[in-house]
Structures are given as structure tokens and as C-alpha cells.
Amino acid sequence: MSSFKIFEIAGSGMSAQSVRLNTVASNLANADSVSGDPNTVYQAKHPVFQAVMGSGAGLNAASASVSVTGIAQSRAAPEMRYDPGNPLADAQGNVYAPNVNVVEEMADMISASRSYQNNVEVLNTTRDMMLQTLKLGS
Amino acid sequence: MRTTLDNYLGIHAQALTIEAKRNELLAANLANVDTPNYKARDIDFKAALSAASGNSAANGSSSLSLQQGNASLKATSATPTTGTENSGDASLMRYRVPMAPSLDGNTVDEQLEQSAFAENSVRYQATLTFLNNALRGLMTAITGS
User: B97-143: per-residue pLDDT in tens?
Assistant: First the structure.
């Protein structure tokens, strides 16, 4: 039964989106983790998605699941803040805040959760359809 | 190899296979909604069904309207698709033309794919109902009650 592949595809989509949610949570949690050294400060993380085309000929190659090929770190410069009262401040009284854009992360979170819900819906519909197919003729 | 039972079930058995394949394709589109450079694909359903039933046209079992559809398709398409037993012809797959281009090269329109998935699910269930009724009729004939 070829519909079993849909479970694999939707499952890979769900796992990719949950990795994305994980990175968003990590970025948001560390949005205020300042450091006295711009080289060691937390950098925003983003997953890299890639389509994995199905093998075989013809329509058997129709499936394309998602895989997370890696986690990219943002190369944007950390934000320098003058905060001499901070125990982590360097000799000039500066601390460095991570390059996390909180607004972008929130939008990313909504997008990821909607995509996750999409895949769950596909999974539910496919399961219902397969159960109906199993009951064929009864 | 088509048997008497295939003839009895008619076009619906093949339609079910193609609808399952189309659902798989649409699920892949929805799963790759955030993948850069992914191109959304779909099946030309009419062409796929014609190709699947084309090799059975010699049996004279498929309906008249379907054969007409087959003829018109061959007249318009430059490269006529050859029907295969399991309707596994890659030329039946089409890339979707995006309505709004996106910067990351992804051509998946989430709303469009969702509605196509919903439509195809209903079609699948309709085909199932047809098949169910046909099989139930057969069971009534066999058991006589």
C-alpha cells in the first residue's frame, strides 16, 4: 500500500519543524545571555532544510521527505551595550548581547507551529482514509 | 493482466491508485513548505487516468466518455503518454506554476496545496464508496441474501 509513504513524508516534516521550534526556543531563551567577549557570545541558530527525493522510477519517485542537513549559526555581529555595572563587562565597560532578533524568532515560531499542524492534519486524513480502505467490502 | 473482477470494478480501482499517489505528492509538497528551492509538483489526473485505462481500452470495458477523453488528450499533447500497468509514468507529474515568486526558490503555496489535498481526499473517499457498493453488490449476488 503506497499510502504508507505519506506517514514517512509527514513524519519527516513534523520532525523538521520540531527541530526548527527547538532552535527558536533556544534563541529566545538566550536572547539576553550577554557576554564580555564578542567571540564567545551566543549566536542565533537556524536549521537548514533539504528535500530528499524518493528513489525509483516514475511516480514512485513522487515522494519527497524533508531532512535537516545542519544547524546554521547567524553571522550577524553581536550587539554591543555599555553596561559598566555588569560583572561580565570588559575593561571598557561593554557587554555583548546575542544577535537574536526576537521579533523574527516569534514569526518563525508561528510559521513552524502552523507547518507542524499542517503535517498532523495530513497524517490524520491519511490514517482515516487508510482505515476506510481496510474496511472495503465489509 | 485484467480479470473479470477488474472489469466489474471498472475505472474505480485505477482511480483509487492514482488518487493515493496524488495524495502522496501533495503530502510531500506540504511537508516541504519551508524547504529552499523545493518545487511543488502535482499529477495531471485526467492524463494519468487515461494512461492507466488506456491499456485496458482493448477490453472494451471502460466507459465511452473516458475513451473520448483519452482521444482528446492524445490529440492535444505533443508526446502521447504510454500507459503502464501500475500507472507509474513520471511524465504525468507536473511542476506547479507559482502565483507569487518567493526569494528562497520554493514554489509551494500552502493554501493551494491544502485545498488540493482536501479535494483529493474527498475524491478518494468517493471512489471508495463506489468500490464498496460494487463489492457489496457482488457479495449479495454470491450469498443470495
Answer: 888 888 999 999 989 999 999 999 999 999 999 999 999 999 999 99
Q: Which of B39, B30, B35 is nearest to A48 (CA)?
A: B35
Residue A110's closest CA among A5, A8, A12, A21?
A21
B145 versus A100: the higher-pLDDT residue is A100
Report the 10 Å Cβ neighbour count for B61.
16
Contact B24 A62 (CB under 8 A): yes
Q: At what angle do helices B45-54 and B64-76 cross, to 10 degrees?
A: 110
Asked if A126 has any chain B CB less than 8 Å from its own CB, the reply is yes
Choose among A67, A78, A95, A17: nearest CA to A44. Answer: A78
**Nearest-CB residue to A59 (from B37, B88, B114):** B88
Q: Does A131 touch chain B (CB under 8 A)?
A: no
Please state the ipTM of this predicted complex: 0.79
Say if A21 is an interface residue toward chain B (CB within 8 Å): no
Q: Are B12 and B130 in contact (CB under 8 A)?
A: yes
Q: Which of A1, A20, A118 sits opposite B114 (nearest CB)?
A: A118
Cell numbers at B132, concatenated: 464498496
Q: Show residues of chain A in contact with B128, CB under 8 Å.
A: 129, 132-133, 136
